[in-house]
Structure formats: C-alpha cells, structure tokens
C-alpha cells in the first residue's frame, strides 16, 4: 500500500481539506493530508520553520490512520527530504530521496539574474535548502535521479556527494492498466 503524504490546507478548494483520498481504483494508493501551520496555504519556501511540527503530525497521523509506521519513506524535493530524514531518525525507518530542482543550481540562477545571497536567502531560504540537501544526501539510503547528467553536473557540487548512492530511473510511463 502507498500513502502519499502532504499538508492539509483549508481554503476555497475543499478537496485539499479532505484528510484522506483514494487515488487508485483498487484502494492501494491514498493521499493522506496532515495538519500543520494552522492548515493555511504557505509558500513552500516559507514552510521550513514548520518542519518539526509536520514531522510530529506525520508520525501521529499515519499511526492513527494506518495503524503503524511505513516500511520506507520516499521524499521529493529538499523540504520533504528534511521531513523524511527527521521521521527516519525518530522511527528508524529507511528513506530514499528524489531531489528534482536543487538549491545550488537555483542559487546560481538567482545570482545570474541580479540577486545577491542575502536576497536569495530571504526570498527562497536557499541556505537552509542547500543545508537540507547536504544532510539528505548524507543520510538517505539512495537518491533517485532521472538522468546520469543530473548526478555529474548537479549533485557533484555537494560535499556529501557519493556517486555510489544514486540510481537513475529515466522518466517513462507504464501503460499497463492493472496497477
């Protein structure tokens, strides 16, 4: 069974407030929405201070809804990587990570458009993001990438880079309807 964990948001769209939602016809895959930060919409760059609250609420919510902690956590992006890492440390659950857009590349892009480090950090929490990426690279069992180019050109910029900890799974689609 797969549980996709995200923040519960109460706003004009009531679907984001539902605590659980089946996303697969056989009942094997669900969205689980976890309370955090008064359930208000907050830009992802501004969510960093709420990560400890979200981790605690993930642990409690999943235990309540599923009856146990997961066997494995798979995080996407730096903030979720931080959540997975802390959840993993508290509950001794292995985690893997997919980074997608990386902070060091984002910082280079921002600097090339006229941002300085202070502005990039105040707008995007870029320093915290890069620190989280470093920690996640050090602690995750595996990092999944779409191309080997990502490993060589992006992840290789990080202190905790180890080429052996990556697996490349190219983008594709499974047209088999039996999922």
The unreliable regions are none
Question: What top-tier CATH class of the domain at 72-168 fits best?
Answer: Alpha Beta
Overall helicity: 25-40%
Report the sheet-strand fraction. 15-25%
CATH topology of the domain at 72-168: Rossmann fold
Number of helices: 6
> Kindly, what is the distance between the CA atoms of the first and last residues, rounded to a whole number of angstroms?
12 Å
Biggest sheet architecture: 4 strands, parallel
Strand order of the largest sheet: 4-5-6-7
Q: What is the element string, with H for helices and E for strands? A: EEEHEHEHHHEHE
Under the CATH scheme, the architecture of the domain at 72-168 is: 3-Layer(aba) Sandwich
In short:
The chain is an alpha/beta fold and about 180 residues long. The chain has 6 helices and 7 strands. The chain has a domain at about 70-170: 3-Layer(aba) Sandwich (Rossmann fold), CATH 3.40.50.2000.
Describe this structure in words.
39% of the residues lie in helices and 17% in strands. With 179 residues, it is an alpha/beta fold. It has a domain at 72-168: Glycogen Phosphorylase B (Rossmann fold, 3-Layer(aba) Sandwich), CATH 3.40.50. The strands form two sheets. It has a four-stranded parallel β-sheet. Helix 1 (51-66) crosses helix 2 (77-91). The longest helix has 16 residues, at 51-66. It starts with a strand and ends in an 11-residue tail after the last strand. The model has no long low-confidence stretch (mean pLDDT 94).
């Amino acid at each position: 069974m797969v549980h996709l964990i995200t923040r519960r948001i109460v706003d004009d769209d009531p679907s984001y407030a539902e605590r659980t939602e089946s996303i697969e016809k056989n009942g094997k895959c669900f969205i689980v929405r976890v309370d955090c930060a008064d359930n208000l919409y907050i830009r992802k760059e501004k969510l960093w201070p709420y990560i400890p609250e979200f981790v605690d609420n993930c642990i409690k919510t999943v235990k309540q809804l599923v009856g146990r902690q997961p066997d494995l956590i798979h995080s996407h992006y730096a903030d979720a990587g931080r959540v997975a890492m802390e959840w993993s440390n508290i509950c001794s659950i292995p985690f893997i990570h997919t980074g997608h857009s990386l902070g060091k590349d984002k910082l280079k892009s921002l600097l090339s458009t006229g941002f300085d480090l202070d502005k990039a950090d105040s707008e995007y929490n870029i320093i915290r993001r890069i620190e989280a990426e470093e920690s996640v690279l050090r602690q995750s069992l595996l990092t999944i990438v779409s191309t080997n180019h990502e490993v060589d050109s992006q992840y290789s910029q990080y202190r905790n880079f180890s080429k052996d900890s990556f697996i490349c799974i190219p983008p594709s689609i499974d047209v088999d309807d039996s999922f």
